[in-house]
Amino acid sequence: MLQRIGVFDSGIGGLTVLRELRRVFPALDMVYLGDLARVPYGGRSVETITRYARDDMRFLLRFGLDAVVVACGTVSSNSLEPLRKEFPVPVYGVIDSAARLAEASADAGAVGVIGTRATVASGAYERALHALNPRLRVISQACPLIVPLVENGVAPDDPVAELVCARYMEPFRRERTDALILGCTHYPVYRSAFQRLLPQTRMIHVGEALAEFLREEFGGCTGGEGRTEYYVTERSAAFDETVRIMDQTVDPSSIRVETDFLG
Amino acid sequence: MLQRIGVFDSGIGGLTVLRELRRVFPALDMVYLGDLARVPYGGRSVETITRYARDDMRFLLRFGLDAVVVACGTVSSNSLEPLRKEFPVPVYGVIDSAARLAEASADAGAVGVIGTRATVASGAYERALHALNPRLRVISQACPLIVPLVENGVAPDDPVAELVCARYMEPFRRERTDALILGCTHYPVYRSAFQRLLPQTRMIHVGEALAEFLREEFGGCTGGEGRTEYYVTERSAAFDETVRIMDQTVDPSSIRVETDFLG
Predict the structure, then answer these.
(1) Using one digit for the tens of pLDDT, what is the confidence trace for A206-221?
(2) For chain B, what is the radius of gyration of the CA atoms?
(3) How far off is chain A from B263, nearest CA to CA, in Å?
(4) What is the pTM of this model?
(5) Cα gap A247→A262, rounded to integer Å
(6) CATH number of B95-206: 1.10.10.10, 3.40.50.300, 3.40.50.1860, 3.40.50.720?
(7) Which of A49, A55, A205, B15 is 20 to 30 A away from residue B1, measured at CA?
(8) Residues A76 and A14: beta-carbon distance below 8 Å
């Protein structure tokens, strides 16, 4: 039984995962941490990503949690094993549950993965998909421009977004990909743009996949109203706008800034 | 007389400033620091920018320097005064010298400024320009997409770059801007794209302007061969490629990683 969990992300994009967890576990208490003072993690080295993820874990564990969810695709794909070894709490990433859902949708045997440079370089999705079915064709594509486009308010139907997405989706179009794993918290914001370019492809929202996996593990709940506490490591001028892009139901003024664990 | 100076930037873009300093002061010894583990600074809060800049200064001052040059437009515009107060060494930013050169080129009285969100929000260029000439019309435009485009190898003549640059340059085209201050280390890489859109406008390279200002202050030198030591706070998979985009004459393997001051 889960009562209180932590959720962390390199920034505020993890709200797209938290929202799916809330839908399945409305009674759960949650503590969210977004490391906005050091975002983005997706272009950094594995050493730096793991170092920052340890800091994030240490902060969350102050709250006495039953489990921690790593909403960040970059941390999930590069640093999950060290976190699981080093911290005395179950740690769930977004990889395995998304791979399972994608594999189940891959009738013609082709799965696509999009993520940050570090996520794609890790090979974590390939390994998880091939563990489920060694004959899957896995096509991976780093999409480093999507996060800055989303964060700067460029809409998915803006010509700049359409041009960038068309390039990134081209390998999946050529390979007639059955399912595409949206392997970074920001990508659900551009889901409509990806779907227009790949009308036959099932889009896999990693937050939905993880929430469904946890429902099977722990059973969901239908009633109750859990509390969420939100923390970030800084608040810039564009903060309120970015929160609204990620989840319009979250009140930016309820999010507290906490920096004392950053050294 | 300058013999040994420090140069720091939020990342590796400061090489575009260092190169101009080397041109004017070939005999100078220099120590460069790029805080790649926490780049970019340009979307962060003033508090975080100043905190990181203090760390960068403390690292550089281990080397016994005559002066420190802040190559980063975001730090120059938001944190120069605290750094000057707190550290016992002359600190030069890129604002005043660029403003001087722009004002001298503004025959019709209109100067444009492009920079990160934090640079534009600071109002530092407006203040510097209006101190020189209160009647100048100053048009400022944050260009947060240029840094990710440059860092991801999107060439200035790529259709995505052209579309983004055309939007950002539109206010300057309308106002027939005499001079445009390229207020971020990455922007010289896109100088040709800006110039195509604004053929009558003088492009102000902040590194060139600062190097000329320091030549007037200290006298340049014609001979000699100074050493440069390069440090960064991390080295990601894309590191070598990013160094090459900024300055093809720098050997990426000569750049050392130093993280112990990051806490």
Answers:
(1) 999 999 999 999 987 7
(2) 17
(3) 4
(4) 0.96
(5) 26
(6) 3.40.50.1860
(7) B15
(8) no
